[in-house]
From TrEMBL:
It comes from the Bacteria. This is Putative phosphohistidine phosphatase. One of its GO terms (cellular component) is cytoplasm. GO terms for molecular function: protein histidine phosphatase activity. Signal peptide: none annotated. Transmembrane segments: none annotated. The lineage of its organism: Bacteria, Pseudomonadati, Pseudomonadota, Gammaproteobacteria, Pseudomonadales.
Amino acid sequence: MRLWLLRHGEAEARANTDAERELTRHGRKDVLHSAAQLAGRPLGAILASPYVRAQQTAELVRDALGFTGAIGAAPWATPDSDPRQALDFLAEHGEQDLLLVTHNPFVSELAGLLIHGHRQDPLPMGTASLAELEGDLLIPGLVSLRSLHHVRHH
């Protein structure tokens, strides 16, 4: 199974709530840059946090790739969610290639948990960073980091 983890693009500093923060123009550009890394990859599903910036990021990727499926809901993937709760959902998800669009610190902790088997060594993920993880099953400590793409900020 291949799991792609994408942190949302740069978002506005302020909104009524954290969940309502929208992507900036720069953030949209960075997301499209990361989406290009997924071109030609067979995605079975795209899941995203319910927060606006993650939904916008997922929509940009879906459009850029010509993905025809709906964006699945991942209410367990908000910034302060427990990555262990995500494991149950991901384990039940049958797709071989899955993209999850989410936030820090959740995304860094989830990647670290899957790769190392614990949360003490989170994977550094900047805005619009894309990690490619692979494993027969998504079991902590049994997943390999295949690639990590960071957007260069100019």
